[in-house]
Amino acid sequence: MADVRVKLQPFEYVTNPRTIEAGVSEIIEKSPILQPYLGKGQGTLGVIFPYTPVFALSANAQYNTYQTTHSNYNVLSYAFSNVSPITLTAQFTCGTVYDSQYSLAVIHFFRTITKSRFGIDDKFSGAPPPLLKFSAYGDLVIKNAPVVVSNFTMTFSDDVDYVDVKIPNTTFHSRLPVIFTISVELMPQYLPNKQFKEFDITEFAKGNLINDKGFI
Given CA atoms 128, 10, 174, 52 in this order, what sign does their dihedral have? Predict the structure, then answer.
């Protein structure tokens, strides 16, 4: 049966079982906040949304318009097609100790992967935020699509209870609402060479490029 869960994973966890040094998986594996919940072993290999998010996907065909003198209608000239940023709005809860720790790890994950590599001691300094794999709702909706996170927003309400959250084997102490919302904007990122070599509209119509190649 197809995996229909909505999930956002480091590229390496999906395509290669070993940790790649320059990838975000290496950062996860070295973080005591992220590794137990989002890493290898007992983790989820990235973010798996625990509740069905509000999901919005828009595909566009862009046309330029031309108006001839004394005419009644525009003439359209096709320019390009694209997929608009994908938006996810999801709830997280802190009903158990593990749920609270997982929710905190997810927040820390999104704050981490929206930043570039930087600093004199980072040998990969200058590398942009990582490319991730996004899957949702099975084989013919989105499967392992390459995306980058362009926006992350968390909303904490003032009308719910808050709980203390501690990450084992650390000294960090935080508080989270028992229910809160995370919004994420994802931008598809296909390399030009991949598009040129792999895209075919007939194969896309058959579903093969969605299931096998990650095209949206």
Answer: positive
pTM for the complete prediction?
Answer: 0.91
pLDDT tens track for 131-151? 999 999 999 999 999 999 999
What secondary structure does DSSP assign to 137-198, as a single string?
SSTTTEEEEEEEEEEEEEE--SSS-EEEEE-TTS--EEEEESEEEEEEEEEE---HHHHHHH
Query: Residue written as tokens 């995306």?
Result: 147
Please say whether the beta carbons of 113 and 150 come within 8 A. Answer: no
pLDDT reading at 42 higher than 90: no
Calpha distance 66→23 (Å, rounded)? 47
CB-count exposure of residue 51 (10 Å: 0-12, 13-18, 19+): exposed
